[in-house]
Amino acid sequence: MKGVALWALGAIAAFLATAGAFLLLANLLGNPAASDPIPQADPPQAQGSGPTLLLDFPEDRLEGLEKRPGQRLALDVENGGNEELPSVDLTLDATSGNTARPRERSYWETVEQLAPGESTTVEFEIDLSPQMSAEGREANPAGADPQPREVLEARATTPEGASAVKTAVLAP
Amino acid sequence: MPSRERSRPVLPATVFASLALALTPVFAGCGLIGDAREGETIPPASAGTTTDPGLGPGVRPLSFGPGDKGSPRVSPSGEKVAFVLDGYVAEKPLYAQTSLPRTASDFGAGHAEWLTDEGMAILTRQDEAGDGGVRTPPAPSSLFDVRPDSSSSDGSSAVARSIEKVTAVGAVPDGGAVAAVAVAPESPGEPTSSRLVLLRSSEQPASVYLRSIKGSVTGLSISPDGRRAVMAVRRDAGDGEGRFEVQTYEFSEGRASRVARLPEETEILGAPQWTRGGVHFVAGEATDSAADDRNPADYDLYRVPAGSGTPEPVRGIGEDFVAASIKVSPGGQRLAVVGRRNLGSPTNLYVLDLASDTLEAATANENMEVKTNPLDLAWSPDGNHVILVARGALSGPEVYDAPARTLSSAFYNLYEVPVTDLPVEGESGS
Q1: In what order do the strands lie in the sheet with B300-304?
Q2: Residue in B closest to A27 by C-alpha
Q3: Per-residue model confidence as pLDDT tens digits over B307-337
Q4: Do B110 and A143 touch (CB under 8 A)?
Q5: Taking CB atoms and an 8 Å limit, are A167 and B410 in contact across chains?
Q6: What whole-number distance in Å separates Cα of residue B307 and Cα of residue A147?
Q7: Which of B101, B291, B312, B360 could form a disulfide with B422 if both were Cys (CB 3.0 to 4.6 A apart)?
């Protein structure tokens, strides 16, 4: 009988200790939904894994762009870190703001060997012509914005995990 | 002795089973077991983590990313919001970041209303603009219903053709929709008429109100108590011209009655609203060629007091106020008004307290284009928020330090505006 009591006491003590430990763990790790670290609207700072990679998308270079093929757009990328970057992959996605009939054109370039503090300019030749229907008119489903804003999203990434993103929105 | 021998192997099993049961909620709280968390949520504006989109403090974006969004509708439970996105219908939990399409991308939706089972009644787009900028009656559209939990992620959705020749749709307060259907005249000289059809859920058959309405219904809303429809009706004048009337339709009596008749060349914008202070509506000259959804003409807000029959301008908003769209609150005591204090002012959301006839500014527009179509305005079912659609004005290229899918003010997006405890106009110094 004494043994049963000892077993019961020991089990209760183990239960309480384990439950307490997990409650502590839950308090430390559990986040309320309202404070989730989510991407926010129009955040003021660049996203990415740190200040090692900087991407510049000067507005003056965007002003002359027209809705036709053969548009030239230059991006500046800078190694803001202390170590040389063996390579930086640049992608530029040109999409219409129309989600019903998305027209996405993607462009890639790779920059080799970017020394600390060094910056370089990469030029893309892009096609901003609207998507045309079979009848030769600008394709636009009923109800969609007839003049959606054009979106240019540039992204720089390194194999080491550094990244930077810039989005340009062009008025129709 | 035998009981002691039996208890030894049983006791640890019992203890650990109890332990596992007791710890289940703890594990679940840690997110280690159970359903994965649903997407990312939008924090409240009070959390201070969102950038002011340009509509003033407390305004919270409800959608993000590219696309022309409009016609927001909060579900009767208040948990979901549906909207038209580039001509198709999308829905999402109110504070979730991402939405799901409910129809195919080429649906051509104009606006959607929630049904009681969280299915949807979807009206195809109506083109309003006529030649020379003069508005013509909208062409009849088709009303479809979509069953709950259907989506078009697989390229198809549970959409069934429901009603043809629909000219206007209004939401029933606790879910459902009333559609005005054009009735084809039996002979060429006969005036047009309309009938009302009630859709409650996607499973129930539609109910038709047999007694017809004289004229073509161009705008329709349901009173907050759900007892009557309030309509803008265009009556043929015989010479090809039309004249607008405000009519009501009592559901219990199955009878339409005229509330007011407007002067010639005056049109009603959107749907009149039944309030405790009478029927309110926005009206103005019908020949303003420069007017469109984004640059409304010089329309005024009128009220027809109960038993009056004569529209009168609403004085509480000020003489120079340019009204664009209105929507009565779920309780019927307040009126959300999108408009401008005068022709040179930015478009803002105001709330008119009908008991005191005072106007309160709910937004402080800095540089946003607020949609002024009457369909682009909605109340939350609890009456604490108004949902509108806006985007930042753009004079040239704009560069953001974030992916396009996380941007709100760069594109037309939905915004939740708190409308409780607002400062009365003139008292805040604004």
Answers
A1: B266-275, B278-285, B300-304, B312-313
A2: B30
A3: 888 999 998 898 899 999 999 999 999 999 9
A4: yes
A5: yes
A6: 46
A7: B360
